Amino acid sequence: MTYFVEGVSRHLEPEPQVRRIGEYGTVAEAIAVAQKAIEQFMRGAFKRGMSAKKLYSLYEEQGEHTFIFQDDARTFNVPGFDHADYARTLAAEICGRMR
Asked: For the whole model, what pTM was predicted?
């Protein structure tokens, strides 16, 4: 089975932009790549003293939201990964560690 990772950028008007990030043989590989894309944005957007709420808000507004689906086309996002949950957790981790 193949897992596809795609990034959706909603801040690019007038239409959201979809980018194929890659195709992977396991869901674990796909999740790791999706998480890395979020991490890259958030680490680049973080400024010392920023709150987790502000960092997450920047991600929601400007970040590329990653989704994973299987090649059988019955799923939009595989169980076990939610970009928003991961980004919230990561924002708290980054902001708590970098104070």
From this structure: 0.88
